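Course assignment 3, question 2. Fill in each field.
Student: A.L.
Task: Predict the tertiary structure for the chain below.
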Amino acid sequence: MPARPERPAFYALGRGRAGDLLTLLHPPYTAWHLSYFALGAAAAPHLHVDRLLWGLAAFGLAVGIAAHALDELHDRPLRTGLSDRTLLVLAVSSLLGALAIGIGGILTVTVWLTPFVVAGAVFLPAYNLELIGGRLHSDLWFAVGWGAFPAFTGYFANAERVALPGLLIAVGCLAMSVAQRRLSSPARDLRRRTRSISGVRTLPDGRSEDLSLSGLLAPLDGALAALSLAIVVTACALVAARL
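Answer field:
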C-alpha cells in the first residue's frame, strides 16, 4: 500500500525556523550521547562537578549542534529549511566553542587531554561530511565516536588516568550505541527511503493483517524513545549518587 509521508524523525517538529532549529538538535539523541560522558564521569574515582559541566557543554556544542549541522549540510536528512550558510555558521562556531573548552581543559586539568581534543576535532567533520570516501561513516565508527569516545573522555577527564572502569564503561556505551544504530537505521530507511509498503502478516489462527509503514515504525520509534529516556535517567541517577 502507498506509504503516507512521514516526518524525517519521530521527534521532528513542524516547519518554521524555531521548529527546524529544535529538530536539528536531535534532542533525544543529543541527550542520550551526552549521558555517555556523564556515565564515564560517574565511573571515575572522584567526580569533579566543574569538569562534568564543562565536558557536557563541549559535547553539547560538538555533538548536539556542530555534528548535526554538518550532517544536515551534507545531504539534508531532516529536510529543514535552514540555509547552507546558517548550517555552516552553526557548525563552525559550535565546533570552535567545543575546541576552546577542550583547550581550557588541557591547560587547567591535564595535557593528556590533548589526544581527546584532537581526535574529536578530526572525527566530527570526517564522519558527518563522509570525508575520505565515507570510510568513517559506518555503524562501528558511529558506536566508537558517539558512544565509547564520550564515555571514556568523561572518565579520563575526571580520573586523569586509563583504568579498567573507564575501559568497561566505554565498551558498555559502545554496545548501547550499536543497539541504537540497529534500531535507528531501519527506522530511518522506512521514513526517508520508502515509497510504499505491501505485504500481509498471517496469524496462527488464520487471520491476516496488512503491513503498514506506521505499524513497522511504531516499535522502532517506541524503543528509541524509551531507551533515550532510560539512558538519561540512569546517568542522572549515577551522577546524583556521586555528588
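Instructor remarks: The beta strands are 200-202, 208-210. The CA atoms of residues 92 and 236 lie 30 Å apart.
Grade: pending
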